[in-house]
Amino acid sequence: MSAPWHAAVRSVHGLDQRGGVDWPRCGRNDCAGRTLRTDTHADGPELCFAHATVHQRSEALRDMHAQSHVDVRGTTLTADHVRDILDTVHAARFDFGGCTFAGDAPFPGTRLKFRTASHNFAARGGGVSDFSDATFECGADFTKVEFPGPVFFASTTFADTVSFDRAHFLGDAWFLQTIMGLGVFTDATFADLAGFHAVCAEQLIFSGTTFSGRAYLDPVEASRVDLSDCVFSHRAVMVLNAHCRLDDARFEAGMELRMRAHRTAVSMRRTHLEAASIVSGSDTIDSRVRSHGHSFPLAPALLSLQGTDVDELTIANIDLTPCLFAGAYNLDKLRIEGRSRFLDFVVPSRPGVRAYYVNARGREIIMDEKLLHVIARKQRGVNVEAWLEKFARDRSVVAGQPDTGRDYDAITYERLAVIYRALRKGLEDAKDEPGAGDFYYGEMQARRHARSTRRVERFLLTVYWLISGYGQRASRALAALVLLLTMLTALLTGLGLPAAAPLQQFTGSVQPAPAPGGSQQVVLDARTPPATLPPFGDRWTAARLERAARLATGSIVFRDTDQQLTIAGRWTVNAGRGLGPLLLALAALAIRARVKR
Prior knowledge:
Layout: H1 5-12, H2 54-67, E1 69-71, E2 76-77, H3 79-88, E3 93-95, E4 100-101, E5 128-130, E6 135-136, E7 140-141, E8 146-147, E9 151-154, E10 157-158, E11 162-163, E12 168-169, E13 173-176, E14 179-184, E15 189-190, E16 194-197, E17 199-205, E18 210-211, E19 215-226, E20 231-232, E21 236-245, E22 250-251, E23 255-259, E24 265-267, E25 272-273, E26 277-281, E27 288-291, E28 294-297, E29 301-304, E30 313-316, E31 335-337, E32 343-344, E33 364-365, H4 367-379, H5 385-399, H6 413-429, H7 433-449, H8 455-468, H9 474-496, E34 505-511, E35 521-527, H10 542-556, H11 567-595
Parallel strand pairs: 1-3, 2-4, 3-5, 4-6, 5-9, 6-10, 7-11, 8-12, 9-13, 11-14, 12-15, 13-16, 14-17, 15-18, 16-19, 17-19, 18-20, 19-21, 20-22, 21-23, 21-24, 22-25, 23-26, 24-29, 26-30, 30-31
Antiparallel strand pairs: 27-28, 32-33, 34-35
Helix pairs in contact: 6-7, 7-8, 9-10, 9-11, 10-11
């Protein structure tokens, strides 16, 4: 939306455009207010509503009531002035454009009075309220105010808190290039379009608000935007430079949320997404700042999906480092795109040392696993309170209230395995096999540590983990293969290779002729003497090591050898023929898992 958008919108609704001051100005040189109607000033200079006499104001109020139009543009008004206008005039149009509201909140719990039965604005759905270019020096209180028609806060400045608590906007509501402190819209109702464009605030609180029409927050600059418990009947479009809370919100037609600011986060606990939705960050944010051995993500982050059905959700270019997945539904259908990344795993060097942080090495894990490790360390007596306090404090910034941590202890290894299995399936369905590998690793780790896993299965998983990292670590399988070759070479050198190839021994006997006059038969018996090892000191020579290495390598690729071996040597070769190809296959499987597309 362009900057002059609010002017175009005002033109559509029949509001005057004041490129400059196009009305008679107040006779006071220090005032830019619009003068009262000329027929109320028979004598003296024309004055604005604030500088007119009591009699002149009374005449002006009667005239405004008769014309069904309040026009006090550019005037400095106090709470008493506003109260006189609202108590006296029933109008179809209120034009407070350019006004300065001095003193305390000028609209305390009032209801703007509109008369639309016989007015042109009745066909447009109610009266019009225009607060464009107005300044509220001490904030404003619009609690329970009902706006029956379009309302405009274009280029409006609220110097302090503005409250629209339980306000009702029955027509279009436009907040265009509005500046405010704390903006409170709790339990408000927007029956038609709600447009927040280029709004800058300290915080915006919409908790419990109902958006029956289209809703646009595009863009909004604030420290925090709270949309918890809100209901959106139409598709919501939000571009935020702020922390955002969507806990318990309902999007009946889906939503589009784009997080544009660095170091911002969104929480989506128990969010109801009833149509296709997307949460995205800028695809240019990927750098990281390092400090004291730790990295802090610059990209917008997602804090939680607990209790949310993510069947219709797509996440793109969002940092999932701090995200909690436990309790989310249909995780296998969650679509993760772009440069979204998870937490990298780093093994702690010693108890009590902060060892879980984002870096460029290790497998990717989810925050649930990290939290499970931290809680397990706490149960073992390790002091992790500082980490847990920071963990809760980071979430409190988005929630706007202390994080109780009531859901932290619900995670178990059995539940963690289910989460990883669902995330893995989702990435596999998206043809991201390499990305699914780390989740498969995490699933197997959770199964290995789960109390419900049987001992035999746990033993097999431990061996599988040691020799190949569950088929995901080619380096581990190759290292195991090198270790196997080393052991085979050592065993063959020390126990398998005989001193020298023994000569065959032949013994014979002459058999008598089977019949008279026949020839005699000579029977020879060949026997190979058992192989004998050389003295221990002569076994470890370079020649024997080289020969043993060739035999060990040949056994792995099923090459037969005519080398005479001892009994221990033959069993050693057989072990190489069984284990070697297995390790080669696991290494090939791990490489395939990393390059498969």
